[in-house]
Recover the amino acids of this structure.
């Protein structure tokens, strides 16, 4: 007997294999997207830190907009991106970067800046991104926001921001 075509069982097996392979590929893509967003955050914070150091070198102080946190997010002023750190754009950065998951209305994944002219702190506040881990980049851990009692030391508590700062701004 000459058989033409596939049996129902053969078709179901092929469909099951395709389904399994596609779920593996999709999970790999989601992981790659998460890593790309994390790399973007690290790059942004590093670029801003470098720009602040260049500003300090040229002006003898850090940009000092007054003793208050500034951000694009509503809870900290809702500033235009280029006004978060006055004097930085366009001389030291072409434009002010934002966290790839920023939500200005919910005040999550926001870059916040504080300076007294002598020191500064820049934090990526309340990062909301599925799969994100604050401890994935230990040099960016913000010990001030770890639910601990010592603002200058990471005590292993629940984190809610990454930070770059001058030495004097490390505990803000």
């Amino acid at each position: 007997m000459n058989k033409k075509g596939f049996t129902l069982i053969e078709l179901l097996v092929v469909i099951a294999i395709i389904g399994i392979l596609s779920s593996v590929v999709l999970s790999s893509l989601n992981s790659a997207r998460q890593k790309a967003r994390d790399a973007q955050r690290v790059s942004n914070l590093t670029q801003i830190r470098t720009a602040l150091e260049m500003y300090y070198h040229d002006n003898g102080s850090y940009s000092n907009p007054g003793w208050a946190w500034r951000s694009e997010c509503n809870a900290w002023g809702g500033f235009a991106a280029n006004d978060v750190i006055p004097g930085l754009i366009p001389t030291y950065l072409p434009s002010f970067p934002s966290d790839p998951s920023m939500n200005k209305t919910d005040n999550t994944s926001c870059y916040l800046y504080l300076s007294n002219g002598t020191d500064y702190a820049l934090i990526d506040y309340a990062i909301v991104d599925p799969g994100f881990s604050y401890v994935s980049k230990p040099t960016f851990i913000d010990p001030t926001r770890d639910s601990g009692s010592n603002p200058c030391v990471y005590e292993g508590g629940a984190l809610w921001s990454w930070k770059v700062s001058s030495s004097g701004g490390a505990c803000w």
